[in-house]
Specification:
Elements: E1 2-7, E2 23-30, E3 37-45, H1 66-75, H2 77-82, E4 88-91, H3 96-104, E5 108-111, H4 119-122
Parallel strand pairs: 1-4, 4-5
Antiparallel strand pairs: 1-2, 2-3
Biased composition (Basic and acidic residues): 58-70
InterPro entries: DiNase_FeMo-co_biosyn_sf (IPR036105)
Region (Disordered): 48-70
Length: 128
Amino acid sequence: MKIAIPVFDENLQIFNNTGHTPFFAIFEQIGSGMFKKIDFVELRKNPRGDESANTGCSHKDSDMSEEERVAHKNEHNVLGEIIQDCAIVLVKKACQNTAKVFNERGIKVCKIDVSCQSAKDALKFIKL
């Protein structure tokens, strides 16, 4: 099972705003229970990455027309493409469109504690 976590870079510090994360850190879990092993696999670049949006986005769907909302949601589809082979994504924050894209692809969204700073520490928040 593959797990995605939004991060700044190879230091694997968690990026708060999933939709604009510069990278997704990909981990793979093999086995379960006391035989479970989770290894770091790779970083995947997000073309929507924007480090200045770490604390959140300024756009609100309520301020958009229906056509703008559809276009905005479609901009998020790339997120689902990047981690399409992952079963879970661990997030601190994910806007409605980001969560919708993951759900449509069968990727489970699991919230992690806002105090968690490291992707490796976030792995304890996996809930199946």
